[in-house]
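User: Sequence for Type-5 uracil-DNA glycosylase below. Tokens please.
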Amino acid sequence: MDASGLPLLDQRISDCRACPRLVSWREEVAREKRAAYADWTYWGRPVPGFGPADARLLIVGLAPAAHGGNRTGRMFTGDRSGDVLYEALYDVGLASQPTAVHADDGLELYGVRVTSPVHCAPPANKPTPEERDTCRPWLVQELRLLRPTLRAVVVLGAFGWQAALPAFAEAGWSVPRPRPAFAHGARFELDGLDLFGCFHVSQRNTFTGRLTPEMLRDVLRTAARAAGLPTAGD
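Assistant: Structure tokens for Type-5 uracil-DNA glycosylase:
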């Protein structure tokens, strides 16, 4: 695998201005900020994936949060959803620390990469289908670069699932027709790649108990083992 491939892709993603509505929104948020982060210099650009280039496990979300990844420049960092995800990864033995505060906080992921089908923070956390489709080539390229080592994928939420399956097909995996339906705990095999469904780590799901820490850890641990990664307690 070309070791420079993924860093170069991340840089190109960070410079993307393809979706006018998303560019306008992410930059407006970065200018106006939230009062709690008034002293921050917001990233205000598309947020690339985070994690090693030889990842065996990929986690696919939805899009960066306006005052999370759009502020910190790192996927699932600086917001409540990220707090839940990274704590679970740490508990399972896939992260060096349980918190993700900013891009230089020393967090490392072990054999895991985190990405999303939409790389800009969208208004109301809702990208349009057109924006999702415009962003898809980035995910396709990322999947192609990861393919030599990738063995399992956890997709968070139905939106991510619907966005990811066409990307897998475009990247060269055989996706069955009709496409597998999203469900928490769903597991499908795509050409030797184990694909798992998990409720999204949104506050709506975690605050209501629809997704508990135990449920999230169970999916992550099962996916890590499918990917051949050691987990805590093994």
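Residues 54 and 167 are 19 Å apart (CA to CA).
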